[in-house]
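dumping this here before i forget
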Amino acid sequence: MKRVYLDHCATTPVHPAVRKAMLPFLRDSFGNPSSAHALGRTTREAIEEARTRVASLIGAGRAEIVFTSGGTEADNLAIRGIACARKDRGNHIITSVIEHHAVSRTCEHLERNGFAVTYLPVDSDGLVNPEDVRKALTEKTILVTIMHSNNEVGTIEPIAEIGRITSEKGVAFHTDAVQSVGKVPIDVNELNVDLIAIAAHKLYGPKGIGALYIREGIDIDPIIFGGGQERGLRSGTENVASIAALGMACEVAREKALPLMDRIGKLRDTLQKKISVAIADLAINGHPISRLPGVLSVSAPGINAEEIVRELDARGIAVSAGSACTSHSVEISHVLSAMGIPKEIAQGTVRMSLGIANTAGEIEYAAASFIEVVEKLKTLSEIEGSLGSRRCY
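structure:
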């Protein structure tokens, strides 16, 4: 069976160069990075080389990168770390209603522990209005956390503009850039951000490793305590093989993924055009321009998205019903609800996300299959509705 992977927002395949970078630290170079002998020095050097590669991808300094177990921990460290470090200055945090649960549930936890959180709305494209951020700031605001791009619809937020506002007020600014790093250019200085969360498995690296960028001069408290690794901000013996993999993934992103950004965007646009022309009532979600190049979120009214996912899977095509992190839930996505999309439309939402290995032929096959599946499910729905109507008499 032909296999087409269109779920790169959920996770990406590990690039061959990344796998190769891991192997030495799973075999002979197994030393503890805290050890003073040769084996320890070898792994320590690998960690620092990886730190340089991660920093280089986002325009940061090497000392500003702290390795974590992934994007979720990076978000937690940023938000809880700032909250603890600045609690004497205030207790107010500003975020948006469409954040990933790694951010929103961390904010909810802080609310239960005495912090006040303002949840900003978004427009129908999923955009936060920077002026809403400005209006929400108070003397007690210590942190603003707004995602760089949304994991469900791909909308890219006006982070640089928001960053200018927070910088003027001296408020720390964190952005969850897990979906963005490696897919679009990211520069910490251009974005005016103080903290950025990164996850390797979203940019052709392995799961279970990530990083947090912390701008020099930003004080932050640790949330994991122990031997004092990672400048005391993330204790625990380092996962050297995965750290090396993240470093190489950032190298791959810079050399291979980012140069292909335009090609991926054109393939996405081709897919969108083909299925939109064939399915008249298909809705496209997210901002039409300010959007990740590989993301296409569509809604087919009157159809359950899980059925679309299953039918496409039977044809060898992998996609997601909304966000992969909530794919087992029957509830309508909080992102789509916040964008004002009605339930009957939102329940038919499918996310297709492209990567560097996708081809024009795969997109042709995916488009034809999607059209076929939606037409089939619509017909079945009409038949079931007709039978249901007859049973009413």
